[in-house]
Amino acid sequence: MTTELPRAADVVVVGGGVHGASVAYHLAQRGARRVVLIERKFLASGPTGRSSALVRRFYALDFLTRTANASATTFQHWAERIGGDPGFRQVGVLWLVDADRADNLRRNVQRARGLGVNVATQSPAEVRTLVPAMAVDDVALGAYEPESGYADAAMTTNAFATRARDLGATVAQYVTVEQILTGGGRVTGVRTSAGEIHAPAVVVCAGLWAGRLLGPLGIQVPVAPTRHQMCFFRRPPDFQTHPAVLDRPHMTYMRPETGNLTIHGFFAYDEVVDPDHYNEGADPAEVLKNAELIATRFPAMEHGLAMGGYSGVYDNTPDHEPVLGPIAEHPGLFVDFGWSGHGFKHAPAVGDLLAQVVLEGQAPGWDLAPFRWSRFRDNALLPRASAADPPH
C-alpha cells in the first residue's frame, strides 16, 4: 500500500525501527498534530527485526536502569498503556557471574533496587533451585529479575506504529530520506525519494544509516556496523523451558523461544561489515561454539538439536552508549541512535522522553547531556561503567 506523503509536518521521524516507531507514537500521544514516520524499507526491517528483544531492567548506568525499568513495566502492561500486542513473555531474566565479578553485580543490584527495580541476588544454590537443569559450578553469584523476559521486536514496532496511525500520524514505508534540509540557522525539513517535507523538527532514529544524514551537517559520530550472530537450539522433550540468562562466565546470553527453542549467542563481536551487504546467516563454527557452551551450562542440551541461526548488525559507538537528544548546532534536529546492541528494551521510555524534549524543550527529571554527539569530538566518552553489561 502506498502512503501519500504530506508536504508539511510538525515533526518528521526518520527510521522505522522500534525507536523511531516509539518516538512517533509518543509524539502523537502527546498532542503533536502532524507527525510523519519515514522508513526506507518496511517497519523493523533493520537491526530491530534481528534483535534478541530481551526485556530486562538494570544496568551499571542509572539513566539506563531507569529507562529499562520503566520500559519493562510498559511491556508488562502494554495492552492498557499502549494498545496492541508486543509479544511480551515474562519468563524472568537471570544473571550469572563468577567470583571476579560478584562484588560488582552485588553493588549494581543494590543500586538498581534503590531505583525501584525488582531484582535480587541469588546464591549458586538458589540459582540451581530456580533452574534445576542448570550447572552452576563456575557461578559465584546470580541476580534474578522475575518480571523481565523478552518480546517480539517486529510486533513491538508495529504496535507502536499502529497506535501512532490511530492518533493521526502518517507512516510512510519504502521511502528514503536523502537529506536533512536547513535554512535560516535551523532545520526546515527533509528531502525524500518521494519529495520534500517541510517541518520545523526532525528526529533521526536511523541507526546504522544516521551518519549518512548527519555527516553533511558536520555531525560526525563514529559508528562501527558490527555483525552479531544468534544460534537456535531445540531443547529435548524433558527440558521444557528456562528464564532468559545473561551468562558472564561464558560471555553468552540465551532466552527461550516458541517451539521448544532456545536462542543463544555471545555478548560481543568485532566483525565490522557493510550493513547493506553482509552474511545474514550463522557461521557453522559459531553454531558449534554456541552448542558446546549451552551444553556446558545446561547438560540436558547434549541431547538437543542445532537449528542454525541468523545474524544482525549493531550500531556500535566508541563507548557503546547511544547518541540522544537535541543537536545544538542545528535547532530543530534531534537524534536517537548508536545503541550498540542494547537499544530495544529502552524504546518505550526513551521514545516518550524524547517526544517531551522535541515538544517542550525538556523532559523533567532526565539529563540527556551525557549522551550528546559532541562527546566523541571532544574526547569526553562516557565511562565504560556499562561495559560489564551485555549488549542485549
Structure description:
By secondary structure, the chain is α+β, with helices and mostly antiparallel strands. It has 2 domains: 11-51 and 153-221 and 319-388, FAD/NAD(P)-binding domain; 91-147 and 224-316, D-Amino Acid Oxidase, Chain A, domain 2 (2-Layer Sandwich), CATH 3.30.9.10. The protein is built from 10 helices and 20 strands. It starts with 10 loop residues before the first strand and ends in a 15-residue tail after the last helix.
Brief sketch in words of this structure:
The protein is of the alpha+beta class and 392 residues long. The chain has 10 helices and 20 strands.
Shape: globular
Structural class: alpha+beta
The average pLDDT is 96
> Ranges with pLDDT <50 over ≥5 residues?
none
CATH class of the largest domain: Alpha Beta
CATH topology of the largest domain: FAD/NAD(P)-binding domain
Name the CATH superfamily assignment of the largest domain: FAD/NAD(P)-binding domain
Terminal residue distance: 33 Å
Q: Could you tell me the number of beta strands? A: 20
Q: Can you summarize the main beta sheet?
A: 9 strands, mixed
Total number of domains: 2
